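Lab notebook, design round three. We kept the backbone fixed and only want residue identities now. Task for the bench partner: fill in a sequence for the structure below.
Input C-alpha cells:
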C-alpha cells in the first residue's frame, strides 16, 4: 500500500510542476485543472477534517494556480440529516491572447455511510467549467 501512496505523490508532484495556466487556451486550462482535481478525488474517504479538500487547495496553490473559494455549504436529506457538502471556487488566468479568464469550479462530498451519519464516509466529485 505504501508504494501506491508514494507513486500517487510522485504523479501529483509531476502534475503540479507542469501546471501553469497562463498562456493556455480556456480548454487547455480546464483540462489541466480537472486533471489535478481528479487525482485527489479517487476512492472513498473517511475522516473528520476534509483532508482531501485541503489537499486540493494545497495542490492548486503549489501549482501556482490563482484560485478563490466563493462559498461552502452543507446539504440535508429529507430527514434533516447532513448528507453532503459543496465548495464553490473559481480559477483565474490569462490566455495566450492576453485575455483574462475565470473558470468556475465545484467540489461535492456526498455521504455514503449509514443513514444516521452519511458523511462518516464520502465520495468526492470535483471539476471546473
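Proposed sequence:
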Amino acid at each position: 500500500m505504501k508504494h501506491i501512496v508514494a507513486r500517487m505523490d510522485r504523479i501529483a508532484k509531476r502534475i503540479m510542476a507542469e501546471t501553469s495556466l497562463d498562456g493556455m487556451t480556456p480548454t487547455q486550462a480546464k483540462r489541466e485543472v480537472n486533471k489535478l482535481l481528479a487525482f485527489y478525488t479517487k476512492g472513498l474517504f473517511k475522516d473528520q477534517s476534509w483532508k482531501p479538500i485541503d489537499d486540493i487547495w494545497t495542490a492548486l496553490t503549489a501549482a501556482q494556480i490563482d484560485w478563490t473559494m466563493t462559498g461552502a455549504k452543507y446539504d440535508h436529506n429529507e430527514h434533516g440529516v447532513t448528507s453532503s457538502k459543496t465548495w464553490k471556487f473559481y480559477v483565474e488566468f490569462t490566455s495566450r491572447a492576453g485575455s483574462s479568464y475565470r473558470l468556475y469550479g465545484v467540489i461535492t462530498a456526498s455521504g455514503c455511510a449509514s443513514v444516521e451519519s452519511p458523511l462518516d464516509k464520502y465520495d468526492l466529485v470535483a471539476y471546473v467549467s
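Keep this in mind before ordering anything: The mean pLDDT is 88.
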